[in-house]
TrEMBL record:
InterPro entries: DUF5672. It comes from Orbilia blumenaviensis. Keywords: Membrane, Transmembrane, Transmembrane helix. Residues 199-350 form the DUF5672 domain. This is DUF5672 domain-containing protein. Residues 1-42 are annotated as: Disordered. The keyword Transmembrane applies. It holds the Pfam family DUF5672. The chain crosses the membrane at residues 83-108.
Length: 381
């Protein structure tokens, strides 16, 4: 019978060539098992325990060799009658846990070795704010008389129009610094987020434009400055603070892109459209502005009615622009009593608080957002 001090026999683990995994202290890997050894069962248990700890599939052995992990800090000690005592320090526990995580990652793609660089590259990229960008379509509002309704109104427009319709908010530097600049006391966080996400952009109006009167707004919209500033868009949606697009609408603005100018009809005979909620072909607008002068035409009373929207309507009709019928125009927007009688569910409304106040309750059943579009404060002159 072998001496009790003899080194116990040792079975080579399944991954015998795995680097940095030495046999337990005092174990002679070259000693063959002696079947007559009195500690035969203890030695067999010892060998099974050792190999169970380090039985690693061959494909993982290859990956681990490539990664060159440090030695596994397990210290084995042979206890009396073949039992083992596994002594783990706090540091060893952390290293062992890290190794187990990496082994789990390796098993995800057993056919291809996974490098540490691949592990880091798999992390999700940081999110950056989307840059404001105008392409083929854009919406615009110009207003320097800020009210608390403006932010909810613009958030509503951003939602119903969608990401393909960025919004430009033209206002004064003073209005922006006082009410809309991120970081200003009591500024809306929702508004700040919309700016950072690139859904809305504030642009400052030149001081030569006076936006507190109806005549001033007409002059602004009949000037090249804004239309050139909105390049390269072809389709421009103009909306004012007293206009709304309904969330329950059966159509969207994109359903009316074929028209060069569309808005609530201004006359029963048609081919004149309100500009407070209107969709216009920017190229056609610039063509008219390059060939005509709004101020001169207004002073000469060239057309029966005043206003930039009537002026554009008449000139577009003269040059053969594609203009909708009254029926189609009322599908886009309504304003007066006879509009609402003819079209119960348009895409939107403009100035109904002044033009058809008795219809507000009826409208709100279909379009509750109408209460965001309150009457404006523009003077006549």
């Amino acid at each position: 019978m072998a001496s009790s001090n003899a080194n116990p026999p040792f079975k080579e683990p399944a991954c015998a060539t795995f680097p940095h995994i030495p046999p337990p202290p005092g174990v002679n890997v070259n000693t063959k098992k002696n079947e007559d050894d009195a500690d035969d069962h203890d030695d067999e248990d010892y060998s099974k325990l050792y190999t169970s700890y380090f039985r690693i599939p061959p494909n993982l052995c290859m990956h681990l060799r490539q990664l060159s992990f440090p030695a596994i800090p397990f210290v084995f000690r042979r206890r009396r009658r073949g039992f083992l005592s596994l002594m783990l320090s706090t540091r060893n526990v952390l290293v062992a846990a890290t190794l187990l995580v990496l082994l789990g990652l390796l098993t995800l793609t057993p056919s291809q070795p996974l490098s540490l660089k691949q592990v880091y590259d798999a992390a999700p990229p940081p999110k950056f704010s989307r840059q404001f960008q105008i392409s083929n379509k854009v919406a615009a509002i110009a207003d320097t008389s800020f009210t608390p309704r403006h932010v909810p109104l613009l958030m509503h427009y951003s939602g119903v129009l969608g990401p393909e319709w960025p919004i430009v908010y033209y206002t004064s530097q003073e209005t922006y610094n006082t009410y809309l600049k991120p970081g200003v006391a009591n500024v809306s966080k929702v508004w700040t987020r919309a700016l950072s996400e690139g859904r809305i952009q504030v642009r400052f109006l030149p001081t030569r434009f006076e936006m507190t009167s109806r005549s001033g707004v007409n002059s602004f919209l009949a000037d090249k400055w804004m239309w050139e500033d909105l390049a390269p868009a072809k389709h421009v949606l103009i909306f004012q603070a007293d206009a709304i697009i309904c969330g329950n609408a059966h159509k969207t603005v994109d359903d009316f892109l074929e028209w060069d100018f569309i808005g609530a009809t201004l006359a029963p005979e048609g081919r004149m459209y309100n500009g407070g909620l209107s969709l216009r072909n920017r190229d056609m607008v610039l063509r008219i502005l390059n060939a005509n002068d709004y101020q001169k035409d207004t002073a000469a009373a060239r057309f029966k009615f005043e206003g930039e929207d009537v002026w554009y309507s008449k000139h577009m009709d003269l040059i053969g622009a594609k203009l909708p019928s009254n029926e189609v125009a009322l599908e886009f927007a309504c304003e007066y009593h006879f509009h609402i009688k003819a079209q119960k569910q348009p895409m939107g409304y403009h100035k109904v608080h002044k033009a058809a106040p008795s219809k507000i309750d009826e409208i709100s059943e279909w379009c509750p957002e109408i209460h965001l579009a309150a009457p404006g404060k523009l003077g006549k002159s």
